[in-house]
Design a protein that fits this description.
The chain is α+β, with helices and mostly antiparallel strands and about 240 residues long. Helix content is about 25%, strand content about 30%. It folds into 2 domains: about 70 residues, Orthogonal Bundle (Arc Repressor Mutant, subunit A), CATH 1.10.10; about 150 residues, Chorismate lyase. The chain has a 6-stranded antiparallel β-sheet.
């Protein structure tokens, strides 16, 4: 039974759909029931259903395609690292409005002296975007993905989860390595985040698949004056 005493309704719906995915009720590569069917089942609004599906897309379980429905692309627990909850999941759970804006997408050639050459070889994709928290610019992201992974430009423009796009290449994530430090972002990033020159929390992430290949290198700057960085662990 859905009740506000258990937290946001859309997160309860998300958990129910996720449970069905993990149990195989909705198999991989199958389409979920329509939004209207979920509205009728849970007796909620279209907006509530869409928020639930968006979170599942961000977690890498679903791929939402305009005019083609919502497809299941994974039935594995997203993180093997721990029982941790991602930072963005925690923000959403606490009722914050989190939006993404794509800034750029391009294929680039790497020189042998480039640090990314050792990870990806001669070619990779660069995706830049930023997150807005409750209307304020919050996080700047720069993702690099090896050129051998197929990244359709349209999926990037439609703001699909980066991890969902990578998973569509039949890649299974195995582990992540996150490094944190403090750094002053360049002028371009400061302009996007609408801040003066000051140190910000920087996170560097290396994502590896089950063959121990690096399938993503990402840098992110967090303006913690908007919200502190936080992680939630279930025990």
């Amino acid at each position: 039974m859905l009740t506000k005493k258990k937290g946001p309704i859309y997160l309860q719906i998300k958990d129910k759909i996720k449970e069905r995915i993990l149990k195989g009720v909705y198999p991989i590569n199958s389409n979920l029931p329509t939004e209207l069917e979920f509205e009728e089942e849970f007796q909620v609004s279209k907006i509530t259903v869409r928020k639930a599906l968006e979170v599942l897309s961000q977690e890498g379980y679903l791929e939402r395609q305009s005019g083609k429905g919502t497809k299941v692309i994974s039935n594995q627990a997203f993180s093997k690292l721990s029982k941790g909850q991602t930072f963005t999941d925690t923000l959403i759970e606490h009722g914050h409005d989190l939006g993404k804006v794509v800034l750029g997408f391009q294929s680039i050639k790497l020189d042998k002296d480039d640090k990314l050459f050792k990870l990806f070889g001669m070619n990779c994709y660069e995706i830049t975007r930023y997150f807005v928290l409750d209307g304020e610019p919050f996080i700047y992201f720069r993702h690099y993905i090896p050129g051998w992974i197929h990244i359709p430009e349209q999926t990037v423009k439609e703001n699909h989860s980066i991890y969902s796009v990578i998973r569509n290449n039949q890649i299974v994530f195995d582990h992540f390595v996150d490094e944190f430090d403090i750094a002053i972002p360049d002028e371009k990033i400061r302009e996007i985040l609408q801040i003066e020159e000051k140190p910000l929390l920087r996170r560097v992430r290396y994502s590896y698949d089950d063959e121990n290949r690096c399938v993503e290198y990402a840098e992110a700057f967090y303006d913690t004056s908007v919200h502190r960085y936080m992680l939630k662990f279930n025990v």
